[in-house]
Amino acid sequence: MASLEQKASEWSGVDPKDAVAVDEINLFQKLGLQTFINLSTNFYNRVYDDEEEWFRSIFSNSNKEEAIRNQYEFFVQRMGGPNLYSQRKGHTALIGRHRTFPVTHKAAERWLHHMQQALDSAADIDEDSKTKMINFFRHTAFFLVAGVELKNQNKGTGCKNCSHHH
To answer: How many whole angstroms separate alpha carbon 91 and alpha carbon 165?
Structure first.
C-alpha cells in the first residue's frame, strides 16, 4: 500500500523535496512571530466567514481565538521558532488531533484556498517564503487526508503505526 507520504505527494502535486523546503531557512527568524499571528488571524477570519456552509460547519464547535493560536503556535514551532505549541498542548500529533473533523479532499482544497488567499494578502511575507509555505501546507493537508482516512479505516483495530502518539 502507498505510504501516507506517497499519497500526500500524489494528491497535493507537491514533490516531497518541495514539501520540506520550509526547513532550508529558518522562516521564524526571517518573518517573526507577528507575521505568523497575522497569517493565522487572516486565515481563520476567512474560514469563519466562508459562504460555504458545509465548510464553515466543520469549525462550528471550535473557538476562533483558540484555533488561531493553535495554528500560529504550530507554524512557529514547525518553521524554526520556539516550541510554543508543544509546551502548551503536548505532542503535535496532527493526524490524531484532526481525526474528529471530516478531513476530505474537498475540505483540504477549501482550507488551502483560504490559506492561499491569506498568504497572497500578506504583504509582510516575501514570495520565496510564500512558495515554501504553500508547498508545505499543500503536502501536509493531503498527508492529513490520507492519515485520517487510514485511521478511520482502522477504527477499533488500533493503528499499529501510531504508537508514538500515545
So the answer is: 7
Give the burial string for 100-111 (b: 16+ CB within 10 Å, else e). Answer: eeebeeebbbbb
Q: Could you read off the pLDDT of 98-151 as tens digits, one per residue? A: 888 889 999 999 999 999 999 999 999 999 999 999 999 999 999 999 998 888
Measure the CA–CA gap between 121 and 97, rounded to whole angstroms: 28
- Angle, CA of 41, 47 and 53, to the nearest 5°: 160
Residues with Cβ within 8 Å of 144's Cβ and at least 6 positions away in sequence, in order, are: 94, 95, 98, 103, 108
The rounded distance, in Å, linking the Cα atoms of 153 and 33 is: 38
| Cα–Cα distance measured from residue 78 to residue 70, given in angstroms and rounded to the nearest whole number | 12
Looking at the whole model, is its pTM more than 0.85?
yes
Residue 108 DSSP code: H
Return the C-alpha cell found at 88.
Answer: 502548551
Q: How many C-beta atoms surround the C-beta of residue 46 within 10 A?
A: 15
**What is the set of domains in the chain, with CATH numbers?**
4-164 (1.10.490.10)
